[in-house]
Specification:
four-stranded antiparallel beta sheet, alpha+beta, binds flavin mononucleotide, 3 domains, globular
Length: about 375
């Protein structure tokens, strides 16, 4: 009882009466479920019964509202995708996806490649490209699409649809200033042998440890950019890179934002730089891809952390809890669109050499690996 009172007092001192009231409500709700609801309906059995029925499962989560924000984000994302295509707005996820699909076709061995491919979307791709091209801009990613299309029309067999798309493409090229850059599929042997030895990679992986205590030094923004360039080499579904890294190095903002995540309570006042990694469902038009923003963003996050280490910087992932109130607060604070979901937060800084690091012993390989097991 005494520990409860002292915990309440510390919440009150740190975050005020409103926060204490909200935490109190949550505590009471948890107790109510633990002692009353689960007392009458034993938890394990009840959850299994609910899980065995599609209707009960849907109803259970409808009542709890657990997946509401995910569902809303997926729907908003599909709407945004279509609106952006109609209004021909950047970034052009449809161009990226179609160009990627053509590159995959061009990368097939000759004897496996179909003589006619991409016929279903080639017309849209050329139209999209024409609309997206900004005459006075760098058009960096679009140059790739132009190069790939040039290569495609050289290789593909003509059909009426493909010939019409080619005419359209040629008339587009004749109206813009563009030097071909050869951003097209290339043999793997042309990649320089990476200088990273297996031993260097192992050492880097071991060096990266979740670090929560930092020197009070600014994190140079150019090192963030350098690490992001590495992060953005990570694989992403159809190369769509459906994420954004939002950085904060203002101490007040860092404390305010990181305190919404709970998991950094206790050390968030010493974080020199905070990343909020946001996934964007608008990169995907189909509900089947609802998980992809989490995968794209997390793969990039891992590479980002490794790259930070090579610059002498350390980091720690901070869980983003799917608590409706916190989701609402962060959406408002960061002005997130309805298709945008926070994937995780990350603390970044130069490590305090005297700060302690949990040992975090990993599982043995054979616990997580199997071959041909069905
Ligand atoms: C998705 C995810 C969420 C995490 N959330 C938190 C968190 O909220 N607070 C924290 O201090 N560490 C957090 N961590 C760091 C883990 O505790 C840490 O990765 C784990 O204990 C293994 O330690 P290591 O990273 O040093 O190998 C998180 C890590 C991941 C991948």
């Amino acid at each position: 009882m005494r520990s409860l009172v002292s915990r309440a007092k510390s919440v009150y001192d740190k975050k005020g009466a409103k926060h204490l009231f909200y935490r109190g409500l949550q505590f009471t709700k948890r107790r109510f479920y633990e002692h009353i609801v689960w007392g009458i309906f034993p938890k394990k059995k009840t959850l299994r019964t609910i899980a065995s029925s599609r209707l009960l499962t849907s109803f259970y989560f409808l009542l709890k509202g657990t997946f509401y924000r995910e569902q809303r984000a997926v729907l908003c994302g599909a709407a945004e995708y279509n609106e952006a295509e109609e209004q021909r707005e950047a970034p052009r996820h449809r161009i990226i996806r179609s160009t990627h699909r053509i590159e995959k076709g061009l990368s097939m061995p000759e004897d496996k490649r179909r003589p006619v491919f991409a016929e279903r979307y080639i017309r849209d791709l050329v139209d999209d490209l024409r609309a997206a091209w900004e005459p006075d801009q760098g058009n960096e990613q679009l140059q790739w699409a132009v190069d790939v299309l040039s290569e495609y029309f050289e290789r593909v067999e003509r059909t009426p649809i493909i010939s019409a798309a080619e005419d359209n493409f040629k008339s587009f090229l004749s109206g813009v200033r563009y030097e071909p850059q050869d951003k097209v599929p290339f043999p793997r042997s042309e990649i320089n042998q990476a200088a990273v030895s297996p031993e260097a990679m192992r050492q880097l992986a071991q060096k990266r440890t979740s670090t929560r205590w930092f020197q009070q030094r600014d994190v140079p923004r150019d090192l963030i950019d350098e690490s992001l360039k590495v992060a953005m080499q990570s694989p992403s579904a159809c190369n769509r890179q459906s994420y954004e890294f939002r950085f904060f190095d203002d101490p007040e903002l860092i404390e305010e934002i990181s305190s919404l995540a709970i998991g950094a309570d206790g050390y968030n006042d010493n974080i020199p730089c905070l990343a909020v990694i946001v996934g964007k469902q608008r990169a995907y038009f189909n509900v089947r891809d609802k998980h992809v923003i989490y995968i794209d963003a997390s793969l990039a996050a891992m590479a980002f952390q490794f790259s930070l280490e090579t610059h002498g910087l350390a980091s720690c992932c901070i869980n983003w809890p799917a608590i409706p109130k916190n989701e609402r607060q962060i959406s408002k604070k960061l002005n997130l669109n309805c298709d945008e979901k926070v994937i995780m937060l990350m603390a970044i800084g130069y490590p305090d050499p005297n700060g302690m690091i949990p040992y975090s012993k990993k599982k043995p390989v054979d616990l997580v690996r199997s071959f041909n097991e069905v």
